[in-house]
């Protein structure tokens, strides 16, 4: 059974930074693309970033491009989301998800439904102005 566990959330002031981590077990981590999503109160969940199984292809939502960085460490079965220059609009629960298929590029993560792949329980990020 695949398990996905996010950590690293917290409360910061605008302009600050946080690094989220997502630990995955139950699959061959290095064979899967991974992504980050977020859901703000009263809003639909939205795609944030994705990284291919090779780590070569990376995708970002326009709203976070230039501020967030996704990376992966296959030796630790962990994917990271470095978030810099945080804004109050970044306040949300952040979720990590695995690709439902192995060896994917991740370029379709922007439309990945919650019913596909494996998802964690989320970690809260709160940015105050």
Query: Shape from CA axes?
Result: globular
Order of helices and strands: EEEEEEEEEE
- Total beta strand runs: 10
Distance between the termini: 40 Å
Kindly summarize this structure in a few lines:
The protein is built from no helices and 10 strands. The protein has strands at 3-7, 10-13, 18-25, 32-39, 46-51, 58-60, 68-73, 78-83, 92-102, 123-128.
Task: Outline the fold blueprint.
Elements: E1 3-7, E2 10-13, E3 18-25, E4 32-39, E5 46-51, E6 58-60, E7 68-73, E8 78-83, E9 92-102, E10 123-128
Parallel strand pairs: 2-10
Antiparallel strand pairs: 1-3, 3-8, 4-5, 4-9, 5-6, 7-8, 9-10
Q: Can you describe this structure?
A:
The chain has 129 residues and is mainly β. It is 0% helix and 49% strand. It has no helices and ten strands. Strands 2-10-9-4-5-6 form a six-stranded mixed sheet, with no helix packed on it. β5 and β6 form a beta hairpin. The mean pLDDT is 96.
Offer a few descriptive terms.
129 residues; mainly beta; 4-stranded antiparallel sheet; 10 strands
């Amino acid at each position: 059974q695949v398990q996905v566990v996010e950590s690293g959330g917290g409360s910061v002031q605008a302009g600050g930074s946080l690094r989220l981590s997502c630990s995955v077990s139950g699959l061959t981590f290095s064979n899967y693309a991974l992504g980050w999503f977020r859901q703000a109160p009263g809003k639909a969940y939205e795609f944030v970033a994705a990284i291919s199984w090779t780590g070569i292809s990376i995708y970002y939502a326009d709203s976070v491009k230039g501020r967030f960085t996704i990376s992966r460490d296959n030796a630790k079965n962990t994917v990271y989301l470095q978030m810099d220059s945080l804004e109050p609009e970044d306040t949300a629960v952040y979720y990590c998800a695995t690709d439902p298929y192995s060896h994917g590029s991740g370029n379709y993560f922007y439309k990945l439904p919650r019913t596909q792949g494996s998802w964690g329980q989320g970690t809260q990020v709160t940015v105050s102005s």
